[in-house]
Specification:
39% strand; single chain; alpha+beta; 30 strands; transmembrane; FAM234
């Protein structure tokens, strides 16, 4: 210690330099330490700010969607509603379509009266030259039965079909009225798109439904074709060059015609157009089927598909398309039997003594015909003796979530000790020995239909009751009723003596049945 003090006394400047150097080194070290810590501090502040900004934006978005931006209002469908029309008669037309685009199905029907509903205060005089009473077309909301639009259309309605896309630029209805005219009505507004007078000849009958065909006149819009039976000439084709969309099938475009009461013929659209106009036409995108071409009579330009040669020939009522393995097959329904014909080789696949078939799904994703018959083989899956009168409403089906169908059938089932009345029955393949009696009715039912009023939910049926044309005018009623309302109050009918579950358990299970909208 004494040495250091003496050295400092001898060299005072050197000591001051050493202290300055040590202070400098300490200062540099402090700056090196402080610099990274300050950078980390600034980075931490930026991260904190970014976090709070993101949180603030998230809160703004949640607040906007919760309170500022309104959620789309879902229409509340009433379980049942009823509309009455006094001093009227109703036609056998009942169409279910989404008219006002609220994603709920609506109802379109036709009735004849001097005045329309009180909601619109319309009359036959609104259309000009129509006499009173006249035929009205009206659309009713499926949610609550409110009248969406109503329009006097003709003196009488011979035939009507709705759901035709791009009919006059919008989805619409096409009707044949008296005096003879074709009228296109906008399905959403009820406005008349166009009207064309025509002469179909004496004693004509419109063979329904119309067929939508490719664009044959080259205007860029698909056309439609109507079959008219005049006198003893059945199967006359009336080609209408109107704007509709083609919903053709397969590779071959053909016009099916019940040319005589017990025969079915197929006509090439190309040959039909050439015969009607005298001009050749090319239909792009369609190919000729070699198998069908072999059956074409080049003199008459028609192909014989099916002729009934049985003990007694029955009149052919209608045709339907049934999905097959490679293409759709043809279901022929006559007054005495039902036949499935292969669309590939035109051979009969099966024939059954069933005159009122009902298309539905007994097995998952396998289309069947009620008796119930498997669509591919014709094997009987289930049958029931049910008296069905000629005036009984057509049956209906609803697709269920298990890829099968609920069958709704009108008829009279004889139960020991009970009086038989016309009733609506429900059958589902999960209970092959059970039939639910939903409701019985002594009223005259003009038309009946069942559908899902909303996608995959709200299964309902619609009843149109009252007098028909040619009868004395009276009360016409249109009713929608939710199916569950009748299931909960239904009567369980055991088709066999074996009771697997209790009646209440069956009601509860069918009440909870989930439905599915098939595309």
């Amino acid at each position: 210690m004494d040495n250091k003090d003496s050295e400092a006394e001898i060299h005072p400047l050197k000591t001051e330099d050493v202290k300055a150097q040590e202070n400098h080194e300490n200062s540099v070290e402090r700056r090196i330490i402080i610099k990274p810590s300050s950078q980390l501090s600034r980075l931490s502040r930026w991260r904190t700010a970014a976090f709070f900004v993101s949180l603030f934006l998230c809160l703004i978005i949640v607040f906007a969607f919760s309170f500022i931006i309104p959620c789309p209002e879902r229409p509340v469908s009433e379980r049942t509603w009823l509309r009455n029309y006094d001093s009227a008669v109703a036609y056998r037309f009942l169409v279910i379509e989404d008219v006002n685009k609220d994603k709920v199905q609506d109802v379109i029907f036709a009735f004849k009266a001097s005045n329309g509903s009180s909601s619109f205060n319309s009359s036959c005089l609104d259309e000009g030259s129509l006499p009173s009473p006249c035929a009205f077309i009206t659309a009713v909301s499926g949610t609550n039965g409110r009248v969406l639009w109503e329009r006097p259309a003709a003196t009488e309605v011979e035939w009507m079909q709705c759901g035709i896309t791009q009919l006059g630029g919008a989805p619409g209805c096409l009707l044949v009225g008296q005096p003879v005219s074709l009228t296109a009505v906008d399905q959403q507004t009820g406005e008349v798109q166009w009207r064309q007078s025509d002469d179909f000849g004496a004693n004509y009958t419109v063979l329904t439904p119309l067929s939508v065909i490719p664009d044959v006149d080259g205007d860029g819009v698909q056309d439609l074709i109507i079959f008219i039976a005049t006198g003893d000439k059945v199967g006359h084709c009336e080609v209408m060059l109107s704007p509709v969309t083609w919903a053709g099938h397969g590779r071959n475009a053909a016009c099916f015609s019940p040319a005589v009461s017990n025969s079915i013929y197929a006509y090439s659209l190309k040959d039909l157009y050439s015969a009607a106009t005298g001009m050749e036409i090319k239909l792009p995108g369609l190919e000729q089927d070699p198998q069908w071409e072999k059956n074409v009579d080049h003199t008459t330009h028609r192909s014989i598909i099916h002729v009934l040669f049985l003990f007694s020939t029955g009149d052919i009522r209608y045709l339907a398309k049934i999905p097959g393995r490679s293409r759709e097959n043809i279901l022929v329904v006559s007054s005495e039997m039902t036949t499935l014909i292969s669309a590939q080789n035109l051979q009969t696949l099966w024939t059954l003594n069933v005159s009122r078939p009902l298309l539905g799904y007994y097995k998952p994703d396998v289309l069947d015909v009620v008796m119930i018959v498997e669509g591919g083989s014709g094997a009987v899956q289930w049958d029931l003796k049910l008296n069905s009168r000629a005036e009984s409403p057509q049956p209906a089906t609803l697709s269920t979530a298990d890829h099968r169908s609920t069958f709704l059938i009108w008829g009279e089932y004889q139960v020991a000790g009970n009086e038989t009345v016309s009733s609506l029955y429900l059958f589902h393949p999960s209970y092959t020995n059970v039939l639910l009696e939903l409701r019985n009715s002594t009223d005259q039912i003009i038309a009946f239909n069942a559908t899902l009023f909303e996608r995959s939910r709200h299964a309902c049926y619609v009843l149109l009751r009252g007098p028909q044309p040619g009868e004395e005018p009276g009360l016409v009623s249109l009713m929608k009723r939710k199916l569950k309302e009748d299931v909960s109050e239904s009567r369980v009918i055991w088709l066999s003596q074996v009771a697997v579950d209790s009646e209440q358990y069956i009601r509860d299970r069918l009440y909870r049945m989930r439905y599915h909208s098939r595309v």
